[in-house]
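Forgive a beginner's question, but would it be possible to get a protein, spelled out as residues, together with the matching structure tokens, please?
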Amino acid sequence: MSSRHATRLLLILGGIAFLVQGDNYAAAPLLIDIAEDLHLNISSAALSISMYMIPFGVFTLLFGPLADRYGKAKVLNLATFGTATFSILSATAFDLLSLCVLRAINGALAAAVMPVSVSLVGDSFDDSTRQNALGAVIGMMFLGGAVAPAVGGALAFFGSWRLLYLTYGLAELVLAFIMLRLLEKRPGTISTSNFLKVYRRAFANKDLIKTVSFLFFVGFAIFGSFAYSGKFIQIRLGYNTLAVGLLLSLFGLATSVVGPKAGTLKQKFGNKLLLFAGMIGGASWMTFSFWRSPMLIGFSLVGFGLAFIIIQSTVIAKAQQLMPEQRGTVMSLASFNMFMGGGVGTFLNGLILDALGFPLIFLSAGMLIFSVGLVLTLFLNKSSKWAMSRPEEVVV
């Protein structure tokens, strides 16, 4: 693939990942406006977020095998048109039921974007450039999530909560037409539509299951604690939603800057890079709740983002190479583990917050990301030694 085509592909896939992740996260600061407009209490308005997230997590298991069977570009095109349409329709919701139904369908269709986009990257780049490309797309995805609260706050300030869904939907629709024209349509890589057979084969690959399992703990540490970082900053510094969103965007900026270089760094430093990332991420997040300076809080967010993108892109690159003919299915398993970990972590950290306050949330998440970096380093070292004794096997 020429450098021009590679850059174009990464811009397209990174762009849709940015928008869909932003559509997911931008609604949180708008709950007050949604509740007032639809005459609801806050807890009822929050159901619209849950009704997006739950189908998002469940349907990620569906789209990977579909992409392997019918072609990744085709499935991604259809899902992008669908999520754009239902984002726009969400702006027309007139009560809680209509909003929840529209957001649920939107979430189900958006579930295709992460696994299919990342698996398409895996198909399009060789071993030497794959992790850098993966890091670029994943970095854009989480930059979209990190800046979303600021985007949502700004749109609410100048318009209303409806403007948020309309803006994201129209942007996704424009990109959907661009993707339809520019993405190369390739046939599927498997011949069966039997989901049980597809996943039975994946689960028979023990190395794959061990590898994607790391993402459960990554999701638990990152998503499970990051969800509470905005409220902590608001209380600690007294910032409004827009200022909090801008500060939180440093996490996403770190992932988007380091992501495209993650593979190069891994090749240069080897598996020691994972241990370093765990140490930086652990130290950054374990000290996060002690800072009273926005600059020091910003440094913690950057360190945590750096650790996340290095560890996650390494795990995904290894997992994809273990089953290259089923990268869509691999990414479904990877996404499911990460979002399940994030969901469990968010729930348990909510209990910790009620009982013990913010500090333990960030301390425990920092310890966990350090542990993941350490154990992952040992796991990869062991895999490398095994590969040297079995050179005929394909491993990362």
